[in-house]
Design goal:
alpha/beta; 7-stranded mixed β-sheet
């Protein structure tokens, strides 16, 4: 029996990230020229997390956002979720206590479970972006935050072509050096070709039940960092996050 396209995609993603997991942190640093950790730190610091927050680190990889949030708020309870158990094994080795293997499209959490949902470089890899955003919105408390760091297509056509070519060359180089397989890391530009710009994603967030607070652009719009707050129902007295 042939699997539905979304399940086939999830299976392929799981297999690919199982392969790259031991080198994942190195690759994120290499592609960002070492700026990745700083971008994530800005994402956490400007989220203005409440006291003793409960956060979801979705598509967590080895748990960067979880660890940074724990340093920012010592009472933080972080739950790392990834599609690949090998990634979570590495996250646990870094000291994360709560790590769950799950699909972003069907999260095993109750409505309004989290004060903030962080996701780094995961949006492009979801089989259905709108379904994943609905799940993220569902598990976020009213007034809670969604913080996303990801690659995006630059709006300028010339920059877009240069950026995709650069990512392809970088991916092929590191794939060959680290694995003897040039195509291993070219999934990044491949996934971007059918993805959206920062502006399009901002519009998508507003339609998904979020109020945009701030966006930071890096590498000429090729990397975007979004902060967005889940709408509070009319008449609710829940305090929204501080303005960014």
């Amino acid at each position: 029996m042939k699997l539905p396209a979304e399940k086939q995609n999830s299976r392929l993603m799981r297999a690919m990230f199982h392969t790259v997991a031991p080198r994942y942190d190195f690759i994120t640093r290499a592609f960002s020229y070492g700026m990745d950790r700083r971008w994530k730190r800005v994402g956490v610091e400007r989220a203005h997390l409440p006291k003793n927050p409960v956060i979801l680190d979705l598509a967590s990889g080895t748990g960067d956002f979880s660890l940074l949030a724990g340093r920012e708020r010592p009472g933080c309870r972080a739950i790392a979720v990834d599609l690949t158990e090998r990634m979570l094994h590495l996250a646990r080795a870094r000291g994360l206590r709560h790590a769950v293997c799950a699909d972003a499209g069907v999260l095993p959490f109750a409505d309004g479970s989290f004060d903030c949902v962080f996701i780094g470089y995961g949006l492009r890899n979801f089989p259905n972006l709108k379904t994943a955003l609905r799940e993220i919105e569902r598990v976020t408390r009213p007034g809670g935050l969604f913080v996303s760091l990801d690659f995006f297509l630059p709006s300028n056509r010339v920059l877009r072509g240069v950026y995709l070519s650069y990512l392809y060359a970088q991916g092929a180089f590191w794939g060959f050096v680290l694995h003897g397989q040039p195509r291993v890391y070219t999934y990044i530009p491949d996934s971007l070709r059918t993805f959206v710009s920062i502006e399009d994603f901002s519009s998508l967030l507003s339609r998904a039940g979020y109020r945009e607070l701030a966006v930071r652009r890096f590498i000429l719009g090729g990397i975007g960092l979004h902060w967005a707050a889940k709408e509070v129902a009319p008449g609710s007295h829940i305090q929204e996050p501080a303005s960014l």
